[in-house]
Amino acid sequence: MKPLASRFLVPFLLQLSVLILHFSVTDSSYLIYGEALTKSILFFEGQRSGFLPNDQRMKWRWNSALGDGSAINADLTGGYYDAGDNIKFGFPMAFTTTMLAWSVIEFGELMPPVELRNTLVAIRWSTDYLLKTVAQPGRIVVQVGDPVMDHNCWERAEDMDTDRTVYIVDAPNPASDVAGETAAALAASSIAFRSSDPAYSQTLLTTATRVFEFADTYRGAYSDNTNIRSGVCPFYCDFDGYQDELLWGAAWLRRASEGANYLDYIQNNAKTLGADENINEFGWDNKHAGLNVLVSKEVLEGNVYALESYKASAESFMCILLPDSSSPHIQYTPGGLIFRPGGSNLQHSTTIAFLLLVYAKYLDRSPGPVVNCGNISVGSAYLRGMAKRQVDYILGENPNGMSYMVGYSNRYPQRIHHRGSSLPSIWDHPQPIRCKDGTFYFNSSNPNPNVLVGAIVGGPGEDDTYDDDRVDFRKSEPTTYINAPFVGVLAFFAANPNPS
Prior knowledge:
Helix content is 46%, strand content 5%. With 500 residues, it is mainly alpha-helical.
């Protein structure tokens, strides 16, 4: 808000603006959550790589990386840039795809038809690319682009002159994490496309089956491969082990195919692959909490009691989210935001809000719909309320009165850590902006010229502070895997703004 001339009016108007902002953000109407849903999906158009279609709505973007794969005589165009850089990292892209597909599976029926279509388009932009990465049996392309060179530049994707190195894992070298997540993404997406495009759905499922066999046969982490380690680490190393991706991939293949072999796999390997470990987070590297919630569906619906250990782990995860529970619980900021150290904190808020809603949905279908947490028990309504508090914080009900979704509300981050957003578009500056030429724009205190509508930034610190600083990438950089689960969350609240 610009300062007003009269010093006497300033205190009153500031208080009034805060009051208006509070009611405009916290008024739980369809239009507000619906607007956020629309923008959360639109964001993915700003992350597209490849040849952009005629119906591209993010008009300041243009074609980029059209030669990807030429170094190995393959077509690897398409897919998404993961964040504010120009690299295509397969590990987080596959997770992003899985979460977009899961959003459609659980909440697609609540989406307006146009937004369901847009979400399916966003999924297919990724799955078309992921199919290319596994087109050759016994091989997976895990990354395109040299991240060290890329991160030393500040240039538009349309101008890239850095090496588009292709990082490949061939059997018998292992890539269980990326291959397992890719199998999960393709299997989940096969469910999302089942009614609208049965043939494509079947292609996705058939490919997912083959990719999972590769992941399971040659077990190990892709980042342990010395041939590619310098390119994938420290950016998207496998820090938490590959075992969760094997169970995650099998669980999605079970959901997509209803195959007894995958049921046996997740049942027989629960202990050996550590299904009950590291359940205090859910994201691109650690799938345990999501795995346990996903598998719990079969237990809660009374189908497969042999998977009870997954349900127990899922409910243990729910309990650590409750501040009043006797269980050790995760950290919250003074303003009520879920917080975990390490940067890009809102990835935890969006994924956990998603799991809360999904587990609440599964609970509603079970005969005993409560979660017992020692000294307290909670039901599905309580879980939905917890999710709503995270959503409302992100959209503006927080100590800063700021929406952390770009382009939503009247106050949002203006200086996000994103090359394309912070540099003049090719329409405003047709001449190339080379590697170091963009440093001027990076260091500028001016707002970004191109609004990356719908992008959710990394978010505030543990004390709820946010400085809107482009340099502070841990707080100001958006990522696809922050947005992806939020699509499903917003679909639910757009249809149920005041859930019970």
